[in-house]
Design a protein that fits this description.
Two copies of one chain form a homodimer. Chain A is an alpha/beta fold. Chain A is built from nine helices and 14 strands. Chains A and B meet through α4, β5 and α5 of A and α4, β5 and α5 of B.
Chain lengths: 280, 280
């Protein structure tokens, strides 16, 4: 083309591809019918996507039948040696493979993975302080293998990720699924335009605990402390929102929290609570 | 280069890359120490490789603890609904992910998969004839997704495959690991120079049942009927050898049967029993 008689700066703005990271928890997994509706809707989503699942109740049930008692501290499961076997079986096997088989039946080319597979999620066993959480893993700095994630997405596959990581020394570790969604989102935000959707049983973050109509539509970092101080956000919602804020501060574009049955509306920001760094 | 004054035929012989498909059964999986030795050796193997595993005893043990009785017919497990859940958990989760985590600790970039993942192994539920095997899958004609297998191998990953297939309608199915090795071997023989190694507890196919020194080093298709008629081959070895012969008749170069602790020697054809179509 040339640039006659002057300084020419050729600016190329490359729009990063959209990636939706969707996390589903125990409640949705426990109900076959609503799970199938959700998976059908998920399968129909255009573009790149990742599904991350928890699976609490099933592990508790199977563990119970095996004579293992689940112990919790602050809503987090304490993972002893036998519980680790149960979550490896139930999260990595039963739930993960059933999700994949169902997605395949909807024409979605899912691939079920845990953090040990392809060394996707490297973690360290949580150090024992006040509480010994047992075989629980905290994802390492740079522990997400984004290059491999990109390659797997590049094959046209849809990763379905069980909440298990590994320590690189042969140990599987139990890791919170919300945290995994956040870590993967943060790592992939360098390569994609990432949106994380946390699906749970409520319509979103509620201003009034039992009023499903009182969804707070938008939360920015600055609002969080006010909402926390006013006790609007408490209990299980606290770590969820803290996770969400960490994610948006690390490059994730939006985190949306809402009801699984509203997936399409959540993705289009027409329902649920959107958390972002700041609305410009 | 040109071809002055004549007809020039340019023959290019492309040597196909070697692919070792190694199958381990329950006995090796049940002993942690020998399993670790095996996995260390497996990790050290050069070139493309796939690991396929069974896992009988662990499923029986967990099933037993869950109050489920394992039923067999002709050495094959009958898979009812609850047994299907157990094998999905134990094969697809517990064993598969522990193998992957251990291989990762040896620097082998393993990825644990079942037949539903990436639609790798499409199967049909076995029709009920004399016996109802329950949720057992027979791999479909063209049911091995060789293109995806090639792509996964192309990423430098080592597939670790659990003996589970799927019917494409959301159902996981239980499929014999020997058969999976054979089906994958046959399908990939079009793209690679395939060798299948079946590891089990004996030194190879024995001429005299209890004499580990009486390994038959080579069996060709023509020898099989003689050995069968002479009852040298019987029981569990019969389907193994029938599988092996089908594989070599369908393009697999060699099938080797031998002891897991001799892996390196088996691969170099220095131990075990080699089955091939014919020795030229």
């Amino acid at each position: 083309m040339g640039c006659p008689g002057g300084i020419c700066i050729d600016i190329k703005i490359e729009r990063m591809e959209q990636l939706n990271i969707i996390k589903i928890g125990g409640t949705i997994i426990d109900s076959i019918e609503s799970l199938n509706d959700f998976l059908a809707e998920f399968s129909g989503l255009d573009g790149l996507k990742v599904l991350i699942h928890g699976g609490g109740r099933k592990a508790t049930e199977i563990g119970g039948r095996l004579g293992i008692k689940s112990n919790y501290f602050d809503g987090r499961r304490i993972t002893d040696q036998v519980t680790l076997e149960v979550v490896t079986m139930v999260y990595g096997g039963l739930i993960n493979k059933q999700l994949v088989a169902t997605l395949q039946s909807f024409g979605c080319n899912a691939i079920g993975l845990c953090g040990a597979d392809a060394n996707l999620l490297a973690a360290t066993k949580r150090p024992v302080n006040e509480v010994d959480y047992g075989f629980v893993g905290d994802v390492k700095e740079q522990g997400v293998n984004s290059e491999m994630m990109k390659k797997i997405l590049g094959l046209g596959l849809v990763p379905v990720i069980a909440p298990l990581t590994h320590d690189g020394n042969g140990l599987i570790l139990n890791t919170n699924a919300d945290t995994i969604a956040q870590e993967i989102g943060k790592a992939l935000a360098k390569h994609y335009n990432v949106q994380i959707i946390y699906c749970f049983e409520k319509n979103g973050v509620l201003r009034f605990k039992d009023d499903e109509g009182s969804v707070i539509r938008r939360i920015e970092a600055a609002d969080f402390q006010t909402l926390k101080a006013g006790k609007v956000i408490s209990d299980g919602m606290l770590p969820k929102l803290e996770n969400a804020l960490k994610a948006v501060e690390s490059g994730v574009q939006t985190v949306t929290i809402g009801k699984a049955s509203n997936l399409l509306a959540l993705i289009k920001a027409e329902a649920g609570t959107q958390i972002s760094k700041a609305y410009l």
